[in-house]
Amino acid sequence: MVVNYLEAHEQFNHDFIFKAEILSENSQIPLDDLIGKMACIECMRHDGSSRFFNGYVFSFKFIKNDAGYSRYEMILRPWLAFLTYRNDCQVFQEMSLKQRSLQLFKNCHFSDVLWHLRQPDPEATFSVQFNETDYNYLQRQWEKAGWIYWYEHRADGHTLHIIDQTQTCQGIKSPNNELVWRGSDSHNNLVGITSTASQSQMTFNHYSSSTFDFKSPDQLQSEFKPTTAFANKMNLESYVYDGAYAFKDAEQGNKNLKQKSDAIAAEAKMHYLGCNNAYAEIGHWFKLTRADSSTDVPAEYLITSLSHKVGNNYLYEIETRTAQYEAEIECLDRNLAWIPKLNSNSEAVLIYGLQTAKVVGPPGEEIYTDKYGCVKVQFHWDRLGQQNENSSAWVRVATAWAGSNFGMVSIPRIGQEVIVQFLDGNPDRPVITGSVYNEDNLPPWELPANATQSGILSRSTVGATTENANAIRFEDKKGAEEVWIQAEKDQNINVKNNETHTIGVDRTKSIGSNETVSIGADRTETVGNNETITIGTDRTETVGSNETINIGANRTKTVTGNENITIQQNRTKSVVGNETDSISKNQNISVTQNQSTSVGQNQTVTVGLNKIESVAIAKALNVGAAYAVTVGAGHAVTVAGAMNTAVGLAQFEQVGLAKNISVGKTFTIDVADKFELRVGASTLVLKSDGSITISGKEILIDGSGPVQINGKDIDLN
């Protein structure tokens, strides 16, 4: 096979395309056999050196049979172009752009790349390739980073050069890196520059942009003003909102704007040259010199685009065409920076519709979040994720209300299906806006049977069942309306001012264990009808100060066991009507100090058996009128010391049978007027005048010793 004619186009940040007309004596070349194979076209320069156009066959087409030859069309493209046939959806996390590029290069069975990067290449927290080719993803990212690339060819391959500053480019390989201006002399077999053209275009003279980062929630702005001829004439500003998280500070924002300015400025100051010197090479600079001048300082230009037209003389006898080489050069002053414009060789990837994803996290966890309430998700299109905390970066979660330490919080849990939108349509900026039920996650109340029910039901974690939940549910079925509230464990209600409860009919309150009610000030409880309080075991009531109980009618108090009443100070008991104390067994009354009993009218004390009264010191009994003591059997009074009985008027004593008085020593009866002792018909009368009268039927004086009668007059009759 012989190359009859070649059209080749090379351009910064674009893949080269070499379109060659092939001559062959074989009209039956299997077209499929050449696809994907490397081919190299060698071009002989004017000085005998070779220049190579190397690539992979992406198209091979039979054109026609002509003059004994079969003509074919072959298109060569670089190895990177294989990535245009790999479409994917995947997530890159915590990877620099170089690392992401190398990972995608692995999808090619062969790659050849040289890196010349001087600027930092930071790791991207989260970067998404979505419904696009590997090639488009790389182009988008390289353009955003301001990376420049081109290819350098040799006989056995071609190398992808990636740089971030065009100042690192090398000179062409011609002597002294020169291309000589030939002008009209180029037809005299002299190689060099054959034509020139330049341009200047209007550009912006003021660039500004803004962004937003929720971790520094103030609008970030940046601006850059290049030096242009129109800088002081009018304000030609380009202001754009770069979307969320476009730059972290003003310095980075200014750098991005300068990169944008350089890209536009380079496009506005291009030079267009015609050339027939095959040493012209993209990605290299050259000196433009004049053959007749040795004193002028040559201008230096960087080649950014190059189109070749190469013809062979193989069919000279038929086509009368000599071997030829022509090139069209686009170049830039070497001291100017060339930067790719965004989407110059890529398509922006935007996701304006909704997607759903699954919330994921570490094994064994049910809730996985950060301090902002973000969660990790795995998108349904992600076939590489492992359904764990590494499936995505933290994704923010929208809520109905978000303020400074106030608002609503409901963190999506692992396994839930959530709705995801993308800020500004950027697939690298997901945000969760809601959640949906699916077959694995059904609503908490069976539908459609309970379609009238709405509410919130959470789930206890970790390892809870469907029975473990906090909930509030509204039943709106007519006639069965209900508000149902459940606290799976504790419920705490904090009312900082007043609380009012109004219940139209009945209220039932059931407490499984203890209840504590603490009231800081007063409490008023009003029961319109009856109140029944049943206490299964003990009851303790403590009143810090006074207690008043008012009962409109009767009160019945029943204590099945014992009752102890302890009063630290005084007790006053007032009964307006009657009081009856009925004690089935014993009663003990213990008074530490004094006891006073006051009865307005009558008092009756009835003792069924015995009554024992013990007074430690003295006892005084004052009866205003009469005092009667009735003893059914015996009555004994024992006085350890002296006993005194004082009767204001008369004293009467009746003894049914016998009365015995025993005096240890002296017995004295002191009567003021008359003492009379009567036994039947016998009497003994002693008067205050000193007379003694003994009267009886018989009077016997019997003495075991002497009997002596002394008197002034003694009359015995």
From TrEMBL:
<feature type="domain" description="Gp5/Type VI secretion system Vgr C-terminal trimerisation">
    <location>
        <begin position="454"/>
        <end position="567"/>
    </location>
</feature>
<comment type="similarity">
    <text>Belongs to the VgrG protein family.</text>
</comment>
<dbReference type="GO" id="GO:0005576">
    <property type="term" value="C:extracellular region"/>
</dbReference>
<dbReference type="InterPro" id="IPR017847">
    <property type="entry name" value="T6SS_RhsGE_Vgr_subset"/>
</dbReference>
<dbReference type="InterPro" id="IPR006531">
    <property type="entry name" value="Gp5/Vgr_OB"/>
</dbReference>
<dbReference type="Pfam" id="PF22178">
    <property type="entry name" value="Gp5_trimer_C"/>
</dbReference>
<protein>
    <submittedName>
        <fullName>Type VI secretion system tip protein VgrG</fullName>
    </submittedName>
</protein>
<dbReference type="Pfam" id="PF05954">
    <property type="entry name" value="Phage_GPD"/>
</dbReference>
<dbReference type="Pfam" id="PF04717">
    <property type="entry name" value="Phage_base_V"/>
</dbReference>
<dbReference type="InterPro" id="IPR054030">
    <property type="entry name" value="Gp5_Vgr_C"/>
</dbReference>
<feature type="domain" description="Gp5/Type VI secretion system Vgr protein OB-fold">
    <location>
        <begin position="373"/>
        <end position="437"/>
    </location>
</feature>
<keyword id="KW-0964">Secreted</keyword>
<dbReference type="InterPro" id="IPR037026">
    <property type="entry name" value="Vgr_OB-fold_dom_sf"/>
</dbReference>
<dbReference type="InterPro" id="IPR006533">
    <property type="entry name" value="T6SS_Vgr_RhsGE"/>
</dbReference>
<dbReference type="InterPro" id="IPR050708">
    <property type="entry name" value="T6SS_VgrG/RHS"/>
</dbReference>
